[in-house]
Write a structure and sequence with these properties.
Elements: H1 3-8, H2 13-23, H3 29-42, E1 51-55, H4 65-68, E2 73-77, H5 81-91, E3 97-100, E4 108-109, E5 112-113, H6 116-124, E6 129-133, H7 139-142, H8 148-162, E7 167-176, E8 187-190, H9 196-204, E9 211-212, E10 222-224, E11 235-244, E12 247-256
Parallel strand pairs: 1-2, 1-6, 2-3, 6-7, 9-10
Antiparallel strand pairs: 4-5, 7-10, 7-12, 8-11, 11-12
Length: about 260
Amino acid sequence: MNLFRALLNPSGGILYHIKGFLYSQNLWLNFNKNLEKLLFAWRKFESPSGGVILIGSSGGYCLSPEWLVQYKEVVIVDPDPVAHKIFKEKYKPTDTNIISSDVKEVFVENGRPCDRSLQAVLSAYPEHDIVFCNIIGQLKFLYPDIRESLWVSFFRDLVESLKPRGFFSFHDRYSSSMRPDVEGYFKNYSTNRLTPEDFVRELYQTSASAITGSIIPRTAEVIDHCTAHFFSEYQAYFLSWQIVPKFYHCVEVVYEPGNKEA
């Protein structure tokens, strides 16, 4: 991803930093707190140890400082150079060592899904935990020419390869001007039980015909971020994230403990 796209892409970059500065300490607090609970459910240490790789870290607006400082080392991977500066400034007062990776593309090579660069990062830090920070739900908009079926196949293979090591991902499933019905903290859906159409009806009490692929929906439409089949074998938790006034993201959270003893 070139610098211009990294800074001005419609699902992140400068626009996302503006939202982070405006809303991370108010509108986002409930989402951040619920995400923190799930992060601690995945990994909790008695004392600081090891490291973590944050894929798509941005400025760290959604990540709990209390959870993150469990790690002695944090590797941030994000194509946006501004994100690295903001993240480092935010965590400068802590004892955590922040390392910037110079990898810009972790999911794509020559216009197709490819994990070569991602695997290079993971190999460089073989004992570190892995967190995908709301980047997977943006791929549809970052790379509109790549078919969904290619992403589904790619992530099924990637997830299988990461199982022994473990991982955590939070990513957009849908977004809309309508608030998703997740009853406060979360709803735990069996993703094999509900079709995407049934899922939309349950979350939004609306017809599946309201689903749109556009990044700018009409009133009462639901944007499909096309992540429904990436982690279909996992128990999934769903959080409501009011990202700006009158607009909400339905965020799916999945995690794999792996073989590591937390």
